[in-house]
Amino acid sequence: MAINFKGKTALISGAAGGIGLALAQALGQKGMNIVLADIDTIQLDRAVETLRQQGIRCFASQLDVTEYTQWQAAVEAAVNEFGGLHMLINNAGVGGVSGTIEDTNHDTWRWVVDVNLMGVLYGTQAATPALKQTGEGGWIVNVASMAGMMGVPYSSAYAATKAAVVSMSESWMAELAPHNIHVSVLCPAFVKTRIHESMRNLQDKYKPEQGTMDSKKLNLGLNKAAALVESGISTELLANRVLEALESGQHYIFTHPNYRPAVKGRAAALDKAFEDAQNSPLVGHLIDQEIARL
Question: Across the chain, what does the average pLDDT equal?
């Protein structure tokens, strides 16, 4: 049975372009009211105009996802404008700066953590009371990455935060199920977005001291990232895949089945590690212990 999105309201972070804007268009065409939230106000105004030209009810909300009070304001505005909130899409994210462990800049790492991880927490925490209040249930879609399913050399900050988003989503799947709030985590591989240019929106509080970043290494990393991103799928295809997955009630949304062998390999390695533990004379006896549950 098809989901009736008509008349319901979605709040989407990072909605001024890329995946966020594509999802806004796809959901808006299904009859949803859209709150487009983004830190880039110039692109945000253009996105709103694009959707309104398509007959989609929407408005803009300036949002720095690292500021919880701004999340609260965005949720309040959505409820006031459209009478309720039914869907949250935590899409805003940054790629960080690729490099070795030794080259890691602490301010840049903190920026990636605050946007990719804390931004998802803040959004979910601010929106959940409104989602519950409708009494109709709803949806939370957290945009992670295939990097959340496996480590990525030289991109540990990005991979770590996306793995955290997967884990948080799994926790919330169980917690919010009694309220009929369906939580999904989206894990795409490469998509044609501007994530490799995410430093364009780097907030002042995360900017490293002058001279602490190697511009030659930075540009080399950006060029490699740009080539990978350009090889990816379109944002429109991804948005349609998300709707397809929501229609069938999927919790894990994958867009690139060619990565299945890699994820299966990781799962096999984990299973082998459990087998080793079971065969261990030190901890093998715990196999019969009941699993503790909250």
Answer: 92
pLDDT in tens, 123-154: 999 999 999 999 999 999 999 999 999 999 99
Tokens of 202: 């780097």
The residues annotated with a catalytic role in the active site are 158
Element holding 267 (H helix, E strand): helix 260-278
User: The domain 9-259: what is its CATH number?
Assistant: 3.40.50.720
Give the global pTM: 0.92
Q: Where are the domains positioned within the chain?
A: 9-259
